[in-house]
Amino acid sequence: MSLRVVQWATGGVGVAAIKGVLEHPDLELVGCWVHSPAKVGRDVGELIGGPPLGVTATNSLDDIVALDADAVIYAPLLPNPDEVAALLRSGKNVITPVGWLYPSERSAAEIKQAALDGNATLHGTGMAPGGFSDKFPLLFSAFSTGVTFVRAEEFSDLRTYDAPDVLRHVMGFGEVPDKALSGPMQKMLDGGFIQAVKMVVDQMGFAADPRVRATQEVAVATAPIDSPLGVIEPGQVAGRRFHWEALVDDEPVVRVTVNWLMGEENLDPAWTLGPEGQRYEMEVRGNPDITVTVKGFHSEVGDTGPERGIVGTAAHCVNSVPAVCAAEPGILTMLDLPLISGKAAPHLAQEMR
Ligand SMILES: NC(=O)c1ccc[n+]([C@@H]2O[C@H](COP(=O)([O-])OP(=O)(O)OC[C@H]3O[C@@H](n4cnc5c(N)ncnc54)[C@H](OP(=O)(O)O)[C@@H]3O)[C@@H](O)[C@H]2O)c1
Fold first, then answer.
1. Which Gene3D superfamilies does its entry note (predicted)?
2. Atom 31 in ligand 1: which residue has the minimum CA distance?
3. What pLDDT is recorded for position 352?
């Protein structure tokens, strides 16, 4: 029996998640919520550029709540806790890349109650945060003892991230520096990345200050830069660096950093990605010291097809669905779930041979 899955929102992550559900042997797509009025009433197959699937898109929360489904992959622009609570209360497990990675008991008390009321589970996941900022540094730390420092760092050229709303409203590109530095972005990002830092701190048992230090820097364009937002003009924000650090005696013991650049040619300060280019880097200092560099989750300018990191983010959500559906109700983090893996392609799967 397949698990019945609803996709919530059909941006980059949503479209990739639908394709992932269709490729997963244990999952079936039964519903889809869309934001744009132009997508309402259309067959979801058409929305993802494929043949009809017999699933019609709706923009009604009530329709989705009323649906017989096991799980919702929730990937809108910004999370709405009331929506998530309604989905949970209706008995649907929710898997999402937009929050609840490692929430504090206090901040998530209401939504946890909704999950318990609906006998459902909420699980936050993703890539960064939700993978390379937390889960994978923790996995690699298992190969070291006496750990003194953990670092997770992303180096990305965001000219391939075709999500103008996320770039502008979540990441703060294309604004004047003052607005970017004082706007709500830091708080929005803090939500995810501070939880990533705290997960590592708690799991590894660092006696860190409970307040995670968050700092940010901006670089501005020195010449017009073509970007998914349109042209970023000289003086507008075209590079962002955020650091989130857990401290013991004012010294960082866990640090998550993102380096988000709109190319390397026209920035002031003249930030670069370094000779190794786009990558995720993880470092564990202990016995022994470990550095791991992961490439392959970044598209390059000129590549066709969806951004690889977005497909990876969606895959992590999709592959988590069976474990989340099998888990006890409440809010469960990746520390609570068993190992999540990908699945064999249909033509190589056991039951097909
Ligand atoms: N944790 C991670 O590693 C990770 C990685 C990537 C992305 N994310 C997060 O995942 C989310 C989706 O990213 P994406 O790349 O798919 O972005 P995207 O391509 O811009 O898609 C955003 C989606 O949100 C919908 N939307 C726009 N305005 C909305 C509103 N006011 N209310 C509800 N929905 C709205 C859009 O609808 P239409 O399509 O109808 O316009 C679209 O389906 C973002 O929050 C992003 O930060 C997390």
1. NAD(P)-binding Rossmann-like Domain
2. 77
3. 58
Q: What is the Å distance from ligand 1's center to 11 Cα?
A: 5
Whole-number Å distance, alpha carbon 284 to ligand 1 midpoint, is 32
Could you report the per-residue pLDDT of 275-305, keeping only the tens digit for each?
999 999 999 999 999 999 999 999 999 998 8
Residue with tokens 């955020």: 242
Q: Which of 93, 99, 144 is nearest to 118 (CA)?
A: 93
Atom of ligand 1 nearest to the CA of 34: 40
Tokens 């997508």 correspond to 39
Q: What is the pLDDT of residue 188?
A: 77
Contact in structure between 197 and 244 (CB atoms under 8 Å): yes
pLDDT given at position 48: 98
3-class state of residue 318 by DSSP: helix
Q: What is the CATH number that goes with domain 3-127+310-352?
A: 3.40.50.720
Q: How far apart are CA 314 and CA 297, in angstroms?
A: 12
The confidence score (pLDDT) of residue 353 equals 57
Ligand 1 in contact with 313 (CB < 6 A)?
A: yes
In terms of Cα–Cα distance, which of 69, 121, 63 is closest to 95?
121
Nearest to 169 by CA among 185, 146, 152: 185
Residue 79 Cα to ligand 1 midpoint, Å, equals 9
- Domain residue ranges of the chain, discontinuous segments joined by +: 3-127+310-352, 135-296
Give the residue among 135, 118, 131, 120 at the shortest CA–CA distance from 326: 120
- Can you tell me the distance from the alpha carbon of 5 to that of 70, in angstroms, rounded to the nearest whole number? 6
Name residues whose C-beta falls within 8 Å of residue 143's C-beta, 6 or more positions apart in sequence. Answer: 284, 288, 290
Query: Which segments in the chain show pLDDT lower than 70?
Result: 352-353
Q: Is the CB of 120 under 6 A from ligand 1?
A: no
Render pLDDT for 115-147 as a digit per residue (tens, 0 to 9). Answer: 999 999 999 999 999 999 999 999 999 999 999
Going by CA atoms, what residue is nearest to atom 2 of ligand 1? Answer: 126
With tokens 């939500």, the residue in question is 191
Mutation test of ligand 1: which of 7, 10, 13, 18 has the most ligand atoms closer than 8 Å to its C-beta?
13
| Ligand 1 nearest-atom number relative to CA 131 | 3
**Residues paired with residue 58 on neighbouring β-strands, in sequence order:** 33
